[in-house]
Amino acid sequence: YMSGLGTSPLIMLTCLFVISAGITKTNLASRLAYTLLIKMGHSPRGIVTALTLSGVIVSAVIANMPACLIIAAIGSAVLKEMGEVPGQSRLGKAVMLGISTGTLVGGVAFISSSGSNATVISILESATNGECTISYAQWAAVGVPFCIIMTVFLVLFINGIFGISKKTVSTSLDIDSIKAKKAELGKMAKSEIRYLITLCIMMVLFLTTSYTGLNVPVVAMITMLLVIMPGWGSVNIREAMKNVPWEVVFFAAVAACITSVVSSSGLGSWIADIFLNWTVGLPLFLILLVICI
Questions:
Q1: What angle do CA 65, 70, 74 make, to 5 degrees?
Q2: CA-to-CA distance for 286 and 272, rounded, in angstroms?
Q3: Alpha carbon 246 to chain centroid, angstroms
Q4: Backbone Cα Rg of the chain
Q5: What is the per-residue pLDDT for 4?
Q6: pTM summary value
Q7: pLDDT value at position 26?
Q8: Is residue 46 scored above 90 in pLDDT?
Q9: Which residue, of 191, 233, 263, 276, is most buried by count of CB atoms within 10 Å of its CB?
Q10: What Cα–Cα distance (Å) separates residue 232 from each residue in 32, 95, 159, 241?
Q11: In the Cβ-directed half-sphere of 47, how many Cα atoms lie within 13 Å?
Q12: Measuring CA to CA, which residue among 204, 201, 205, 225 is closest to residue 215?
């Protein structure tokens, strides 16, 4: 069990949450959200699209929980400025549901986009004694296209189900106010540029693990060291560690360990025989559909 804990997502998730703290210490997420609102916020549907898309993009780059908190705060401020009444606003419901669901969609893009992604891979490796795994590039090859398709579907669905249009939403967004908010952020600070460069380095290292020999947890640790490095990083390690959601980290780590117990004891095979034995002989697509459901 303890050896399983050592190869679980424990270290990787801890590093990723520390890295994510950098987005709260910079204005990158706010710059992105305000830029999209300026481009798309001329209509109620555009406001929902801009904030949902912001959640998708930010959560794809960092862990989705911090992304949701940051973009939701921006969305709340925008709705308040528009005079939308909490609990009664059709637009407010669409925006908040779009942001929270959008961060889940963005969390599918890369292994590092969500803690559950690393947990699933760890469980797969544990259940197969390390014979089966999914590389970062393999995940991205499926995750990124899926993320793009689901973002389009999500925006259309959210706007449609709440009936968002100029007829149903009487208030409009003051674009000049959003431009002023973006101007208040000033020019991109050096710390923001360094953090952006660090994220680019992280993505390159993640996507080239098969060539460099650096596995995903090692890349996460290298990136964390860059983020907290004096003179370069933008994160105070002590402050960041206090804000790590340890219940999420340890849940993911313990889940991987429990899987090895379930697999080695034969319980996993017994459960599969009972609930999935009838799928033998069915097309692969239907088997996947049944498992997902």
A1: 145
A2: 16
A3: 17
A4: 21
A5: 66
A6: 0.81
A7: 83
A8: yes
A9: 233
A10: 22, 36, 42, 18
A11: 29
A12: 205
